[in-house]
Each structure stands twice: as structure tokens, then as C-alpha cells.
């Protein structure tokens, strides 16, 4: 008999992880090959999994593509015709996924139920939709949305929910890449290591549903090894024993705009004509939720008094400024900014370092930036309504840049900006971002001939 294990809707969760963003090129999500979990038409995976107490005899499972539509896809699996003998676990099912700007999401599953000797992972035995008796169930347990956060960069951490009713939680962290050997790649393969603390409360089998999990992901292949050390003392594990997929090269994992709660930065900002006495400003990451951060600013010294907050979302289409709220009083007068379509009270100002950095259009910085990346403004966006700026940005590559905070090898981003009728809002801006530090320097050569310079002090 087959029991339906379709997972509960992720609406509330996705509302958090899928903030309104910009025009992420759809082929980045629908490309079936260049992914952490591919969805190629002919792709196959064969896993071997076991649990040292409840299923000590290893079971082979074969997965293949069931369907694909846009960024969504499903894999089906079976244990039939794989030589599984006495003591193995017979199962079959379908498990669904969706690629989003926030990362890979598990959308649900339908499978045969776990064997009766396994712990019950719900408050009651009747109608329980939770299971840990299959290879990919080990990967998605407690981490359905997102299952794998992107962009995946050093220091990445995220919280997620899982289980059929989002009744399991996890704290996840990217621990870097390492070479591992699995039967599918006996010569070794480079894998991204994801460590998770998984918690279940309220189920009859809580100790089994709670524990520490490690999953090794290979770009262009998917998970190749999963180890779950249950709080009850058992260990479940699965490894890839065969596939027709070839490992790809993982994107660089440098984080050029890190948002970690409590992180601070101090900048000195001046303009050759309008702000000759420098303004010193302190920024602090006050809150981080699902790779979105609120950064607070206060002015430490100088002729500008300002306070406020900036909200940033880091997604596969880059680091975006999604909201800004600041108040300022200035002893100096800056030239007006546009656009003319907005009343003066709603127009932006260049009071802080982040005002200069976020001005114009998103993203501030693309995900996985590399030399030659280019993006342009669009008249149909919220950014154009707020700034009225046309132009383009491109990544110049890594450059050596010196600031009072030190010398950095930083990625340089150049933006050509034009705000019709407002020379001060037009010009060329170059921003430098250092790994694990964020913005370290910015130079804005305005159309009125003045130059704004931002330098990191610490």
C-alpha cells in the first residue's frame, strides 16, 4: 500500500525567502546542468543508504528525472531491479524541487511509508507524513526552504524548516569545500560541506528526528554523501555509488558583501567641493533573516548628523538594496538630486557612504562577481521610479586598493550614471569590495566636477 507524503505548503516560508527582486535572468534558474542539483533529461543517480539500528543492511536506490517545468522539477526513485535482498528497505516515490533566487527549495514528496520498525516522526502514528527512510529524505529533513541557500559563500548560515508540516527546524552553515572519495568518484571530488543542527519537538520519535547532519554537495551532480547522527545515538548515512553526471566547477565562494549580525564598519566621507570637512560614519548589521539584512547607520563626527537603516537582500541576482529609511541634518548644502517626477521631500540625498553605494539601480554587486559582468538600469523598475537614473555597471576585476583600514585585493565595480537635469546625480562611480569586509572604498566623480570619496577606517 502507498501512503501520500505530499508536504505542506511553504507559502509563509517562501514569503520570507523570496523577496521582490529584480530581473534575475531566468536561464540561471532553469539551466538544467549548471546547478547544485541538476535536472538533465537523462540524469541518473544511484545511492546506497543505511541506518545502523533500523536498517543495517544497505539499500540501493536509483533516482531519475520525473518532470521539469521552468525552475521546478521532480525526481522519482525506486529500489526495484537493483539487487536489493533480504533486510533492505523497499521504497519508491517522487520528490520535488524548485530553484529560486534564494536557493534550492524542496516542494514536497510522495512515497511509500517507512518500515514499521522506524521511529514515528509525528505526534501520532496515524497519517504521519514524515520519513527518514530514503537517501534524499536525509538531505531535505528539516531544511525544505531553502534546502541549499544561494549564493553559497564563505560564512553562509541560514535557518530552515522541514517535515511534512514544517514541524522540523534546522540551523545550517556552509563549512567550505573539501576533497572527498565516494564510490561514484573514487578518485576524489571537490564538494561543498553543509553542516546542520536539526531539531524536532512534539513527535513520538523526537530523538530520532533530532541530530547533526552533514551533506556534501558537488556542483553539477548534487549531494554525494549524507551523514545524520541522531540524538538517540543512531547514525544514518547515504552515499552516491553511481551517476552519469560529471562534476562541475563550483562558483567562487568569496563573500564581498558579508552581512553578519553585529558586524560593524566605520567610513570617512568627503566631497572636494561640497563636503571638505569629512563626515565619519558607523554602520552596524543589526539583524539578519533568510539572507536579508538590516544595517543601521549613525554619524560619529562631522558636519552631517544622520541616522537610519538600509535593508539588503542577497540572492542569486546579487546584493540588492530593498529599502532605505534615514533622517539627516546637514550644516552643508549639497546640490539637488532628482528625479523631477518626485517631490523634493521624497528625493534621495548623499548623506552617507551607503547613500552613494546604493544610488542608481540594483544590484549593488552581482552574486559570484567576476571580471566582465555587466548590468544596466531599466526604466520599468522601482529603482528608476525612485532614482530616475539610467546607465550601466560592470565588474572591472580584482584590484589592489589602499585605505586607512589597510590594503585590500578588492573587486572593483564601475557604474556610469546619468540623472537627467541633475549633474550632481550623474557621473562615474567606482566601488571596491573586499572579501569578508564589504565596501572598503568608493569614488564618485560627479557631473558638476566635484568628487566624493568614501574610505573605510576600520
Q: Can you tag this structure with a few keywords?
A:
single chain, mainly beta, YmcC-like fold, twelve-stranded antiparallel sheet, 6 helices
Ordered list of secondary-structure elements with their pairings:
Layout: H1 11-17, H2 27-30, E1 44-51, E2 55-69, E3 72-78, E4 92-100, E5 103-111, H3 135-140, E6 148-149, E7 157-162, E8 168-182, E9 185-200, H4 206-209, E10 211-218, E11 222-230, E12 235-243, E13 264-271, E14 275-289, E15 292-301, E16 304-315, E17 318-330, H5 353-358, E18 374-376, H6 382-387, E19 389-403, E20 406-419, E21 427-434, E22 438-446, E23 451-456
Antiparallel strand pairs: 1-2, 1-12, 2-3, 3-4, 4-5, 5-6, 7-8, 8-9, 9-10, 10-11, 11-12, 13-14, 13-23, 14-15, 15-16, 16-17, 18-19, 19-20, 20-21, 21-22, 22-23
Q: What report would you give on this structure?
A:
- The chain has 458 residues and is mostly beta strands.
- The chain has two domains: 11-243, YmcC-like fold (Beta Barrel); 264-456, no CATH class.
- Helix content is 7%, strand content 49%.
- It contains six helices and 23 strands.
- The strands form two sheets. The protein has a twelve-stranded antiparallel beta sheet with strand order 6-5-4-3-2-1-12-11-10-9-8-7.
- Strand 19 (389-403) and strand 20 (406-419) form a beta hairpin.
- The radius of gyration is 25 Å and the shape is elongated.
- Residues 1-25 have low confidence and may be disordered.
